[in-house]
Amino acid sequence: MILWRLAKAACTLSACFCLARVYGDDDIEVNYSDNYYNEIPGGETPDPTPSQAPCSSADLTKWDKLFMMLENSQMRENMLLQYSDDIIKVEMSSLRSELTRTISEFGGSCGAAVETAGRKMSTQLERRLGEALQRRDQASDVGGNSVERSSDLEAMLQQLLSAVKTQPSRLARQEDGLSTSPGSGTKPHPHQGPNSPELGSAANPQQEIPSQEAALNGVLAALQEERLKLNEVLRSSRQRSLPAGCEMALLFPMRSRRIYTSVTPDVPLSLPSFTVCMWAKPTVVANKTVLLSYGNRKNPYEIQLLLGQTLALLTVGGEAHLVEARGVVNPGGGSEWIHLCGSWTSDQGVASLWANGEKATATPGVAEGHVIPHGGALLLGQERNGCCGDGGMPGFDAGFDSNLAFTGKMTGVNMWDRVLSAEEISQLALRDGQGCEQRGNVVAWGVTEMVPHGGAHFIN
Length: 460
Prior knowledge:
By secondary structure, this protein is of the alpha+beta class. It folds into 2 domains: 66-240, no CATH class; 249-459, Jelly Rolls (Sandwich). 39% of the residues lie in helices and 18% in strands. The strands form 2 sheets. A 7-stranded antiparallel beta sheet has the order 10-9-8-3-12-1-14. Strands 7-6-5-4-11-2-13 form a 7-stranded antiparallel beta sheet, with no helix packed on it. It is extended.
């Protein structure tokens, strides 16, 4: 066992000695140089690849330049409107401060004048009551008066007594109302006498009345002047603002056969009756200006809502079936919004036109028994017709006439598949109402898809 272990140890030592001899004779070489495998060998440098030329934009056409001018003019208009609104806010705040200052200056004098007039009325009532009592005493002493005269005196005395009883309370209410206004001073007690320091400051009340009346006349004149200014500011603001409840409008900046708005109704237009309403603010009104049109290839004049020089027109089923309302449009357009509604029913063919909530005309026998077909195109501000040919303009439908185009603003466009009642149309036409929030079931303003084309666009 021991010999075997000694032999194993000797073998191990001999192996270690051999390895030391082998590695001791050979030196291990270490290469610390950097190896770059992506070096480009000399003389083989590739030629640089030229980059592509930048994209060159096409020259602007006259239409592109025109639309750029329109965009710039619209930006300037928006800046002017914002500046005008800021001016109105400043004017309103200054007007409010002036009114507050006027009330604070003249509130006390008004209270003193009312108080003096009340004391004078009370004195007169007391004097008349004393005279009536004296006449009654004289009549009772003579004894020749009738029972009817006595009853009349009793009634007069009762009226005077009731007036005297109610006079202090009325004066107290007036004093309470004046004491709450700015600059009116401390609140006087309703039972203070004429010799109190707060009520009897003047030596002769009769001499105060003319001066107080003059002060009141001055206040009244100042208030009337401020009222005229306020009405002018409100009128100017109303001309620029949209009808109440409407947050946006369609702007048609100019007459062009390229500018219109297409509408996609929520339900197919296969209708035996309808009502269409809108707010319109035309810039200029021609002999025929299209607000709304609906038609197909067979008949492009199924529905038309038009404006003339001084009238509004509604056609159903063709241009031969129309009704018109005269005297509802400003001949030169203008700055006021007009609310128009047109309704029609196949039963008896009754067609009606409404202007600003009032029925302007109603005509029976208009396309009686007709049904509006579906599959047509509903447009705002233009109509399809056969006047103009193709025009050679890709992307725009043929048959648009610039002389018929609408220019101005339009909002609150709604359409129903029934005839609205007179009360419903009157509510829609209220200038300070919520007309744009009452939406139709065929076309709903703010919900139904409306796509402006050309230079038409939405504003708010």
